[in-house]
């Protein structure tokens, strides 16, 4: 798993942003023949500091979509058409994009991106309009556990309440940290993890010596880190996307504090290594899939397809933000299978089909099943792996 070299990665950000605009323009000015296609949408960060996440999700969805279309499509031969919209990591823009997909493009269902606050904002709309919304990255617990009845929100991704258990367990086992400090982004995603990490620490006998918050725009976090150091933190648990996380690492470097950092996966969706510098390699973080090591037949097929389609992918280390790629690939197949089973693009029929799919051999695992009427999360703590950066690549922890 990993990113392209720095110069290529910068080009990827420019290409992702321009590609999002170009594809949006194509979708707006070239009408899709409804009788021949089934429209599916994507609301994700296609520009800005998290553009890599949107590109990774797009690649995973595209590889799966091309497989499905080449095999004859769905609903008796209809092809899937993917229509993307850029949320710019902004909840308001995410809702506007979702509304456009639902009311103007009339998508049968749509996928979500990296940002939990954006997904939280979209969830009520999806449930009100009865259009299935499939998360493939954002991990906020309340995205799927939103108390709606019926619930049209599903996820092929990690969930904070389970990730938090894994992060605390790793800090305890790998770094013998019985005292940890929390560094949390000050938004609903950070709040979701504060609840989960507090419960996980208590359950595992680990003391939280301090909880510090920071804004996405902060460039100096020495004050927060100093308080955690003075409180005796033996490891830090970090919840943030790439850019502010990099500022935290640079603040640690200015302090000369070499404390182990265990992070949620937001750092893998942007320019973390470029912005944070060499210390980035010391940070351990969580993923749901690795393209390194022995691969299943599906894993080999997907990696071969990525290398054939994208010139920057020469091997497993070049797969950008692998978690987005892998989650999106499985999500597209599961959703297409549900639409086929439903026999229509009616939202309620698709929801019921997702809840009763049965077994599915995916990239990440075999789903037995992916979802039920009471469980809309396809992955659990058994599906997580711990990784780190090695240069610009993401590799499993030794």
Write up what this structure looks like:
This protein is of the alpha/beta class and 398 residues long. It folds into 2 domains: 6-158 and 293-380, Rossmann fold, CATH 3.40.50.2300; 161-287, Rossmann fold (3-Layer(aba) Sandwich), CATH 3.40.50.2300. The protein is 45% helix and 17% strand. The chain has helices at 6-29, 51-70, 91-104, 116-129, 141-144, 160-175, 188-204, 222-230, 242-255, 272-276, 297-309, 322-342, 347-354, and strands at 37-44, 79-86, 109-112, 133-135, 153-155, 179-185, 207-214, 235-239, 261-263, 284-287, 360-361, 366-367, 385-390, 393-396. The strands form 3 sheets. The chain has a 7-stranded mixed beta sheet with strand order 7-6-8-9-10-13-14, sandwiched between helices. Helix 5 (141-144) links the parallel strand 4 (133-135) and strand 5 (153-155). Helix 2 (51-70) packs across helix 12 and helix 6 crosses helix 7. The model is unreliable at 1-11 and 13-34 (pLDDT under 50). Residues 37-390 form the Leucine-binding protein domain. Keywords: Amino-acid transport, Signal, Transport. This is Ethanolamine utilization protein EutN. It comes from Oceanibaculum pacificum.
Q: What characteristics describe this protein?
A:
398 residues, alpha/beta, Rossmann fold, 2 domains, seven-stranded mixed beta sheet, five-stranded parallel beta sheet, 13 helices, 14 strands, 45% helix, 17% strand, globular, signal, TAT_signal, Leu_Ile_Val-bd, Ethanolamine utilization protein EutN
Short description:
This protein is of the alpha/beta class. Helix content is 45%, strand content 17%.
